Amino acid sequence: MNANQIANSPVTFHPVTVVVSAWDQNRTTPGTKHYLGVTIANRGDLDAVVQVRLESPSDLLRQWCAQPEQWLALSSGKSGELTFCIEVPGDALPQWLDYEAVVIPQGAYADYYLPPTRCRLQILAPEVSETTQDPTFSLSPITTTDRPLIVLGAPVIVELMVENRSERVDRFRLECTGLPEDWGIQVEYPRDSDSFGLVRLNDSLGVNPSDRGMIRVLLQPPPLPLAGSYLPTFRLASENDPRLGLLALIYLQVDPVYRLQAQLETVQNQVRNRHPAQFNLQFANLGNTPRQVQLLLQPKTPIVACTYNLASDRVTIAPQAVSQIPLECAPQRWWTRPWFGSGKIYPFQVELSDRDLHAIDPDILQGQMIWMPRPWWQLLLTLLAGLGLLGALAFLIWWYFLRPPIPPTVVEFAAEDSRYAEANGDAARVRWQIENPEQIQMLKLTGYSPEGTLLSGPLVYEFKDGKPPVALQSFCTQEKALLTCSQVRTDAFLPGKYVFELTLTPKGRRATPVMLKTSPIEITAKPAPMVTALVPKSLLYREAAPGEPTPTEKAIPAIDQSGIRLDWAVTMPVNITALHLVGRDQDGKMIGDRWFEFSNSGELPKLLRPFCEVGQTLICRNVPTGLTAVGEYRFELQALSADQPTAELKSEAEIKPKVSEIVKIQPQTPQILSFQINGREAPAKLLIPVAPMQTLLPIRVTWRVQGGSTTRVDLMPSPGSVPLVGMISVPLSPQGSTTIALQVKAPTGEMLTRSVTLETYDPTRSKPTAPSSAAKIAPPSSVASPSGSPASSGSPAPSGAPSTSVPIGVPSPAVDDRLAPSEAPPQFNR
């Protein structure tokens, strides 16, 4: 809290107001619901978002209230209500539940503070139905919610008269709950005498049938209990009927005691350096109720003379507690600090006011801050500073009016760079730094060869009134007595080596020119375009063939219609006339080439535009070659310059091509997926019963092989070469056996073979001996050809499906029109 906020505090405007109301007068019984309504009104000019939550030191509120926090948005001039539900369980004991409704504005009113609203919910004892034989008890004194027993600090004596209405002797025990921990509870039962006349203490009350007994309870409050209402609950337990629990309440009231002492504690009230004066506002609450105090600091000096920083303008002090609020005071206007004496005093006071208008002792706290005088050495420094000022004034007069002019001096003269490129179209540039430029008459810049031959200039710059000429103003900056010129352009732009000389001619007749030279610099000629990188996108591909690849092949990318893709980078794209791409096989034989001709300087050909970017370097990615055939290949790329003669555009003799690594397209690993006889997988040997004079039907052989374009499939002994998927009908021999072999040969030389031996026998004769792996088949007359062709369906047909017979020796489908690997050259320059 600063001094500007302290003086003349205006009437506080409350943009947000809160009204808290209970639906059932803050009383409820176990097993019911208690509803609390919070009405909020937005009286400000801005929209408001308000957070409302219920807080309690007891954990019961969080257990009984399912939604203790809610939000409400209100436009200007509108109001709304939030409803909180507290569900009291059926086994809750009679007690008081203290909680607060905290309202926190957000958004435009985030800095506005609303004090919490205290609430207290009374949980009454449940109504218990009793029978005529149940014990009863009564309390003395008799209290109600409207007429509670006032506790003044002395012990409270409660007497319970217990009546046993049953037909048996019963013992009763009393339990008292619902009081704070600092209260003392002492239960006294009547003393019994034994047969010897000795008095003994009892822990319960024994009552004969239809008799009464008394239990005395002593409630000892602390010396100063907290103000408020207390609801101790007495529960009487029967030894004969443990399930029976009798409850009774007594209402106690502790009146509030208001005693608050305030004191201003001085930590450091003298200010000597930059550290402010420090005070503590100490509040001691000697009463039994919380106190809320508003602080108002009032300085007794002008506001601009001193700043006050109060940590908070309000404080809440708990009962029997002490709170402190720091206060810092710092003087302003350093020039008003006294030079000698006892110091300057800044008095102030703090007015205290209670929110509920209770007394505070005292209600005004007086204090003062003392700004101590300056130390003696500051006065000495002031005198010395005055003497120094006089000396500085005398020096300035000599410097500006009596001092002779200083000749200019070249601090630095050098080239901006030691190497330039003709391709950039820029000339050589130099820089220099000269002190005292107002004394310069002329500068001359000349360029020589290392042997002393004049190559550039001379460029002459004449200065007028110490200012550089117009030709240098865009390159030079002048700060005080230093002229800095950078990136000064010369007329040297041809390739070669240069040494520049700067000649400075000062003002005056007797001035001697000053000459400085740079180290040799070089302007290099335009470089020819060069292929710096030629990288295949992948060094290994697998053939794109139908079927499921092996797990090893899945890790290898499959070749697509674009074929092998290349990445390359070429320098100096503006000088490129054409790019020549050549493909060779593993023996070095040229299999095709492509020309990419650039019609204009730096303009990409149409074929390369989707894949290339032109900058300082031509970068092309994923350029397709269309090469998809199985094999090993190497690529060469040449960049031809625009400076070459037309007749040499397609000559490969003068430019060495960039050669890539070897790229391999490996064939697909062949697999025999299916080899069937009459729709069933073929075993090693198949026995076929043939009765005498029975007409032999041909055996249908189907196969399915997974492989690539270089995979060769042979069906032996005939017809030999067959497609990867097909069907053929094989006639049976009435006598003897027939062996059918399916041979699959990979390009690597690996061969897969599956064979089956077909043997016929007369079932009317003795059964031929067959190995354990041989299978039997029904007579050919009972076997029907499956429907459809495996070549067209891609999978073996089920046995027994109706179909027409297939002619003998006719494979289905017919052999495709693909060329053998040796007959199909790689397709590159399409």
Molecular shape: flat
Structural class: mainly beta
Query: Main beta sheet: strand number and arrangement?
Result: 6 strands, mixed
Radius of gyration: 55 Å
- Work out the number of β strands: 60
Can you walk me through this structure?
By secondary structure, the chain is mostly beta strands. A hairpin with a 6-residue loop joins strand 19 (233-238) and strand 20. 22% of the residues are buried. The strands form 14 sheets. Strands 32, 34, 35, 38, 39 and 40 form a 6-stranded mixed β-sheet that branches. Strands 42, 44, 45, 48, 49 and 50 form a 6-stranded mixed β-sheet that branches. A 6-stranded mixed β-sheet has the order 56-55-58-59-53-60, with no helix packed on it. The chain is built from 6 helices and 60 strands.
List the helices and strands and how they pair.
Blueprint: H1 3-6, E1 16-22, E2 27-28, E3 33-42, E4 48-55, H2 60-64, E5 69-74, E6 79-87, E7 95-106, E8 117-123, E9 136-140, E10 149-151, E11 156-164, E12 170-177, E13 184-188, E14 192-193, E15 199-200, E16 205-207, E17 211-220, E18 228-230, E19 233-238, E20 245-249, E21 252-254, E22 260-268, E23 270-271, E24 277-285, E25 291-299, E26 306-310, E27 314-317, E28 322-331, E29 344-354, E30 364-371, H3 376-402, E31 409-415, E32 419-421, E33 429-435, E34 440-448, E35 454-462, H4 470-473, E36 476-479, E37 482-489, E38 496-506, E39 514-517, E40 521-524, E41 531-536, E42 540-542, H5 551-554, E43 565-571, E44 576-585, E45 590-597, E46 612-614, E47 617-624, E48 631-641, E49 658-659, E50 663-666, E51 671-677, E52 680-681, E53 685-689, E54 699-706, E55 712-716, E56 720-722, E57 725-730, E58 737-745, E59 751-761, E60 775-776, H6 790-793
Parallel strand pairs: 2-8, 10-21, 23-30, 32-40, 42-50, 53-59, 53-60
Antiparallel strand pairs: 1-3, 3-6, 4-5, 4-7, 7-8, 9-11, 11-17, 12-16, 12-19, 13-17, 14-15, 18-21, 19-20, 22-24, 24-28, 25-27, 25-29, 26-28, 29-30, 31-33, 33-37, 34-35, 34-38, 36-37, 38-39, 38-40, 41-43, 43-47, 44-45, 44-48, 46-47, 48-49, 48-50, 51-52, 51-54, 54-57, 55-56, 55-58, 58-59
